[in-house]
Amino acid sequence: MTHCYADKIGAFLQVQEEQWLTQMSSEFESNFPGLELGDLQKRAWADCFKHLQVELSKCTLSDGYIIFEYVLPMEGGRRPDVLLLIENKLFILEFKMKDGYQRADYDQLCGYYRDLCNYHHESAKLEVIAGLVLTQSTSKLAEIESDISILSSDKLRAFLDKHLTGAPTCTDLKSWLESAYVPLPNLVDAAVEIFNDNPIDELKSAKSAGIYDALNELDKVTEWVEGAGN
Question: I want to staple 4 with a disulfide (CB 3.0 to 4.6 A). Which of 69, 150, 186, 202 is the partner?
Answer without folding.
Answer: 69
